[in-house]
Amino acid sequence: MADACLFCRIARGELPVPFLAESVRCVAFRDISPQAPKHFLVIPREHFDSLNEIKDPALVGEMMIMARDVAATEGMDVSGYRTVINTNADGGQSVSHVHVHVLGGRKMHWPPG
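RE: above sequence
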């Protein structure tokens, strides 16, 4: 599955997607279908279908710290931003590779959906 996974291919550099940030275990890049003026994703390089599969809490922490750091670089840290991890179909997950959405650049509303 990981060989054909779109996000795995992005993480391996097989597709021409510029990274906003990268580490040994994670990468961040802009969402192809932004839902806010600023919208990027943070993914682990290793394939996990959803958050349900991750056993290493440090990996989730790394993803969130990268989300925070890129949000600051994008100028969203002061005004605010939203982080979302959709999990499985009813949670709105459309790509079967765990990812954090980071949205900003406008006021977010609650409830989201």
